[in-house]
Amino acid sequence: MRSRPITTGLVVALTAGVCITSTASAQSPGLLPAAQNPTQTSDNASRLTRRITVSLQQKRLEDVFAFVKVATGAKLDPVWTSDREAEGLDRDAIISLEADNLTALELIEQVLEQLPHNGSAPTWQPGKSDTLQIGPRSRLNKYKRLHIYDVKDILKEAPDHTRVPTIDLQQALQPGGGSPFQGVDIDDGTDPAEKKYQKARSIEELATLIREIVEPDQWMENGGQGASIKLFQGSLIITAPDYIHRQIAAIARSKHATKD
Q1: Is 106 a residue whose pLDDT tops 90?
Q2: Most Cβ neighbours (<10 Å): which of 29, 41, 58, 93?
């Protein structure tokens, strides 16, 4: 078994020269699982918003994560390589960066940008027991959950005002003359099955758009192994790991903010 250097002294040394501030009022909704109430924030998410100023020069990845844990109290769950798993984070990867008033999560994201990868770039997602799981997408893809997104509001069609009604005053002034509005069909004659087909096509277009802009290489429909979309009665049923769900949830929040 490979021996590992003792990191305690390094972590203590790093922490001694660190400026850490709490920013609980600036908690990011992006830290939350998509199924969680956006008005609630987990303890770990709160810790990950604490701001850090530190200089990291030629530090091992394992030491950097240990430092973040000690400095903020956040619970991290890195997915390391092992004798049984060749794909994962390398404990001995070297990190150098200057963190100037970054949140702990921002620091972690900058660390991940420095890591080499073979097509499966590392990212993060909420893990079990209120942890932050960090690793290659190919490994995080093993932790999927199903979520149903109701998209009926997004797909509501604007009323068709191309046919403007006219008013027949003579007809309106006669007793029992019927409706004065002319040129408006109560029933447009469209087959109900055709209407359903048209709406289904719109949902399919939305599903296609999501597959194009959110982790396009991870969808099974695009040849990936990370996520899939099924359509059902105005809803998208998406089975995916949380790093994909949080990106979809961010799009949904943006859509609602635009509407408001």
Answers
A1: yes
A2: 41
